[in-house]
Each structure stands twice: as structure tokens, then as C-alpha cells.
């Protein structure tokens, strides 16, 4: 069975600081990996995904993530946080069942 | 391109009442999902359709929940009767392929059961 663990339910950073949101997964087959962002009272928006090919993937709003098979990780980073990045972020894995399995989410707070 | 449309956006009902949610997926998306999102949690799959066939409904509580996707386009999720614990956000999503690589989510329906 596939699963996702997001370390840290709440992360707080200063505006302009590095954002690092951690995600580890388990999957019996090569996974598809995703990061979604959810703003209050809205649905989930896809930030980026890894399916095959280059292990460093770039997404919208300056975010990127690196698939590290040896560490079973897919951490999300952004070099410089902006106030508008404050939201909840979900890591998800899809394989082998072709259904998305989500982590419990990380609430990102950006402070002045 | 229009996104996934859901209605209503908010619903407040009393326990034991029935409730229904409607979803219109992105045009051409054959795979449709219903997810349940409890407060402070990630979404959990309730049911997945490929066209009009429910291919994964193992997590759907069939004693009170039902879903249909007639004609393989729009879908309806129903709860009857609703319980207090059903208060949550119900998310509809769709994708073009069956591998789950490009899943687009609707804004969700927030259900409050009093």
C-alpha cells in the first residue's frame, strides 16, 4: 500500500526566507508524486508533479521539488517566501492503484 | 478551459436529513473522483469512476452513501441519512487519463450537519 508522511503540521518562515516542506512516501512501485496547495475555502491546486524523467521538478509560483528515490523523499522548496504563499500544502503519491493518497498537510505561515 | 464545477458550495442540514452534491468534471475527462476532506486532514478517496463505471468504491460507506455518474459526465454524491460526523468538505476531481497524473480538483462542498 502507498502512504505519505509530511513532517511538521505547521511551518512558519519569515518573508524572504527559504521554504522547506518535507514529504516522505512509501510505494511498492515507482511512484508518481505531487504537491498541491490549498487556500482557505478553495479546492486543491496542483503545484508540481514528478512522473518520470528529471528528478528536480519546477512548479508554479517559484516552487520546486526533488525526487530522491534513495531517501523516499519529495521535499518542496522555494528560495524566498512571499506572504501570498501562506496556505496549506499537501504531498500526494499515486501508484500503483492510480488513486491519489495524500499526506495530512502542512500549514505554511509567512511572517513579516 | 472551465474547471471542475461543484454545487452547492455550502450546505447546512440537520442530522438524519438527506443531502446531495453535484459535480461537473472538465470536458473530456473520463475519470472522476469524489474525495472527503475532514478538517485538518488530507483528502481521502471515496469513489473513482472511469466513464460511468465505478472502478474503486471500497472506501464509500455504502450504508448511507451512494453515488452515480449517468452518461459518464456529471456525477452526484448522496448521503441519506446524514450524521454529525459527516460534516466535512466533499471534493470532486477529474482527470484525462486513468493513471492519476493530472487530477484537477473542484472547489468542494462544505457540509455542516447540525
Characterize the structure shown:
- The complex is a heterodimer of chains A (112) and B (114).
- Chain A is mainly beta.
- Chain A is 0% helix and 55% strand.
- Chain A contains no helices and 11 strands.
- Chain A has strands at residues 3-7, 10-14, 19-26, 32-38, 44-50, 56-58, 64-68, 73-78, 87-94, 101-102, 106-111.
- In chain A, the strands form 2 sheets. In chain A, strands 2, 4, 5, 9, 10 and 11 form a 6-stranded mixed sheet that branches.
- In chain A, a hairpin with a 5-residue loop joins strand 4 (32-38) and strand 5.
- With 114 residues, chain B is an all-beta fold.
- In chain B, the strands form 2 sheets. In chain B, strands 2, 4, 5, 6, 9, 10 and 11 form a 7-stranded mixed sheet that branches. In chain B, strands 1-3-8-7 form a 4-stranded antiparallel sheet, with no helix packed on it.
- Chain B has strands at 5-7, 10-13, 19-24, 31-37, 44-50, 53-56, 65-68, 75-79, 88-95, 103-105, 109-113.
- Helices cover 0% and strands 49% of the residues of chain B.
- Chain B is globular.
- Chain B is built from no helices and 11 strands.
- At the A-B interface, strand 4, strand 5, strand 9 and strand 10 of A face strand 5 and strand 10 of B.
Amino acid at each position: 500500500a502507498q502512504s505519505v508522511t509530511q513532517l511538521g503540521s505547521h511551518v512558519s518562515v519569515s518573508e524572504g526566507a527559504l521554504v522547506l516542506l518535507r514529504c516522505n512516501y512509501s510505494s511498492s512501485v515507482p511512484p508518481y508524486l505531487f504537491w498541491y496547495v490549498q487556500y482557505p475555502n478553495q479546492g486543491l491546486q496542483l503545484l508540481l508533479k514528478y512522473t518520470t524523467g528529471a528528478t528536480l521538478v519546477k512548479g508554479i509560483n517559484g516552487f520546486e521539488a526533488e525526487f530522491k528515490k534513495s531517501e523516499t523523499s519529495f521535499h518542496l522548496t522555494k528560495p524566498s517566501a512571499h506572504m501570498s504563499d501562506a496556505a496549506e500544502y499537501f504531498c500526494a503519491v499515486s501508484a500503483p492503484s492510480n488513486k491519489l493518497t495524500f499526506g495530512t498537510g502542512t500549514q505554511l505561515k509567512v511572517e513579516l | 478551459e472551465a474547471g471542475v464545477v461543484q454545487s452547492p458550495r455550502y450546505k447546512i442540514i440537520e442530522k438524519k436529513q438527506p443531502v446531495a452534491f453535484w459535480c461537473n468534471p472538465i470536458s473530456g475527462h473520463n475519470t472522476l473522483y469524489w474525495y472527503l476532506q475532514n478538517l485538518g486532514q488530507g483528502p481521502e478517496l471515496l469513489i473513482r469512476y472511469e466513464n460511468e463505471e465505478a472502478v474503486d468504491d471500497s472506501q464509500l460507506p455504502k450504508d448511507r452513501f451512494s453515488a452515480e455518474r449517468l452518461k459518464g459526465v456529471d456525477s452526484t454524491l448522496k448521503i441519506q441519512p446524514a450524521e454529525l460526523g459527516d460534516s466535512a468538505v466533499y471534493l470532486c476531481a477529474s482527470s484525462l487519463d486513468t493513471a492519476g497524473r493530472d487530477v484537477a480538483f473542484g472547489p468542494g462542498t462544505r457540509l455542516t450537519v447540525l
